[in-house]
Write the structure tokens for this entry.
Amino acid sequence: MTQKEIADQLKISRSTVARAFNGGRINEETKKIILDFAYENGYKPNNLAQTLVRKNNISIYVFLVDSISPTYVNDIIKGIKVSEIKFSDYKFEINIIQMRASEEKDCQKQYKEILKVLETESPKGLIVSFIDDTYIKNISDLCKLKKIPLITLDTINYEKEKNCHIGPDYIQMGSLTADFIITGLRETGKILILNFEDSCNINKMRVKGFLDFSKNFKDIKVDFINLSSLDQKDFDKALSSCNLLEYDSIYSSFKSENIVTYLETNKIKKKYFLIANDLNEDIKNLLYKRKISGIIYQRPFYQGIISIETIFNYLIKKIPIPNKINIGIDILLKENLSIGLYYDFK
């Protein structure tokens, strides 16, 4: 069946049928009649053909924050580039904007830049990472008003706002980290957690998963120390305030390399069972040298791929966007990291 046959059967114009499939202006009731009829009669639109007659590109904006781990952002971009090539025939134009957001003024600047794009560029889709909870509701409301699909990559309050969140289950990530450490300690010992409250609550979720899992082991004890920042000096201050010889493992969901730096600088000889949640060059080197035993890591490469594919499916194939898409978690060891676990896209 063709669009012309649908128009003839429903006794409407061919252009009206076309608008129903390509997102043009059309009465919602008429659109529903056309789409229902097409579905019942097995019609499948030729997405590429529709693209060829489209005059304008499909503009997608991606706002990425230069996070604690540069590898994280770089892997997201690699995934986005893979999808950009895959959908190049469909006139997808992906605009990647990288920003800092380490201070409140940076977060405000990021927020203003996003608002500017929404107001002036009329994007067909928006993807953001590490957008502060203070601003996400306004962005979400504006996207809904303008009917722009919004995908977040690291904003935990997606359930409240009903946006699409693409990322790992951070509670599960924390549980898996605890499992790794407790197994390494043979289910007995004392663990020190260095706690840092980030604006997106990622650490909070990881620590919750860690504690929930560790409660199952009566011979595992857990203590807390709060960090005021992720600078080395604040790690040094926190670690120097306690007797580290009491502990068998030290866990921080961010910047685990700072723990090793403190231990080496202060010539602490005790062997600790350390697991990281970041992936950067320092962490890689520590893993190769067996200064840490492993990394529990999310999959930013696939976050990049799936975020673009999700918007493509929504805009081109009319597939609804879910509220949440879980990305798996990797356990990285010296052996599997050295053989190239991640796709090296250039």
